[in-house]
Amino acid sequence: MSSDLYGRTERLELSDQNLREFEAVVLDSTPDGIVLSRSAFYPGGGGQPADHGVLLWLGVETRIAGVRKGDDLYLIPAEGDPVPPVGTVVRAAVSDERRSALMRTHSGLHVLCGVVFRDYGSLVTGGNMEPFAARMDFNLPEVPPGFKEAVEDACNAEVSADRRIDIRVLPRKEAFDIPDIIRTATNLVPEEVEEVRIVDIVGLDTQADGGTHVGSTAQIGRIKVTKIESKGKGFRRLRIAISD
Question: Which residues pair with 63 in a beta bridge?
Answer without folding.
Answer: 54
